[in-house]
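Revision sheet: C-alpha cells.
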Amino acid sequence: MSRHYSRQDSMRLNRRLMAENIRRIFLTSLACIIILPVYMAVYKHSGTDIARLVSGACIVFEVIYLVAAGFSFYLMRYKDEQLSNIVYRSFWLMFEVTSFIIIFANATDGAGLNLYAVMLAAVMLVPFMSAKDQIYVMSLQALFAVFMLIKFGAGGSAILNVILLNGLLYGLSRLIYGLYCDNFMMKETLLEKSENEFNDDLTGLLNHRGLERRTFDLTRECMREKRRLSLLMIDFDDLQSYNDTYGTERADACIRRISDIIKQVSLRNTDLICRLYGGRFLVCLEGGDDMEAVRLAEKIRTCIEDKRIPQGRHADNKFVTVSIGAASCLPRHEKDYAETYDEAEEAMRAAKEEGKNLTVYEEQVYGAYDMRKMAAN
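Predicted:
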C-alpha cells in the first residue's frame, strides 16, 4: 500500500515513531535486565567453556541494558531527537549481538535454533523500523541463520524454512508499521479538524467557542496561583464605513492585518487572543499588574494607528484605528471572568463614545484623547 505524506506530516510522523521506539527500548531493556540473570543462572550449571564465555558476555550486556534503560527513560521525559536516534540504532545493534551470542551458545549445547525464531520476531516486530533498516536486519539475521544451519549440518529444508520465516516476519512487520502510521495520521487529521472547530476561519485566532473552552482553564489557573486576570476588548473603529468603501474582501484583509498586529504585539505564550466577530477581538492576559494591561492596550492601539491604513469615507478618522476597553481582576470565583468581560466591553463602548482611537480602563481615558484635548485648548 503506497503512502504519500507531506513533508510536515512526515516530520511529525518520524518524531512520533522515534518517541514510540524510545518507549519500546525502555520496556525491552527492562525485560532484558530481568531475563539475562535468569539465563546466566540456568546456563552456568553446564560448566563448559562456552557457558563461561556466555556468562561473561551476559554480565556486560546487563550493564549495557541498564544504561539503555536510563537513557531511554531520560529521553521519554526530555525530547532530544539527535540523541534518540543514536540510542535507537545503538540499542538494536546490541540486541542483535546479544541474540547471536545466545543463539550460538544454545546451538552449540545441542538446543538447536528454536530460539532464533523468538529473537527474530522480537527484533522485527518490536521496533518501528523503516523498510531500509528492516531489510538490513532481515538480511543480517538470515545470513547468520544460514551460517548456523550449515555449521551444525542442517538440511536444505531447514534453510528454506529460515528464509520463509524471515520473509513472513518482514511482511508482518511492514503491515504493523503501515497500520501504525495510518492510525497516527488519522488521529492527527481528526485532532486538526477538532482544533479547527475552535479557530476563526478568517484570522486563525481562537473563535468564541475556543475562547470559552480556554478561559475556564485560564480562570482556574489564575485562582489557584493567585494571579491577576486582565481582558482587552478591541474593536475596529468604523468598520462599516471601511466595508462600504472598499468592499467585503478588502475589509476581511484589513481584519486579518489587525489580527496579525495584535499577535505580534502580544508575544507571551500565556496570552489568549480571540476574534469574537466582525472587527472585535479579545485579549486575555494572565499575571502582571493592571497597568501592564493598559500598556499593552496602548501599544496595540498605537501600532495599528502608526500603520496609517486608509479608512473609508465618512469615518471619524482618516486612518484605520481601534478602540480598546481594559478590565482586570484577581479571580476568586469562576464567575469573576464573566463580570470582567462585561467591564471590558463597557470600557470599550466608553472609548467609542469619547471619540474612538482610545483606551479606557476604570473610567480613565488613554491615548489620542489627550492630544485632542491639548489641541482644543
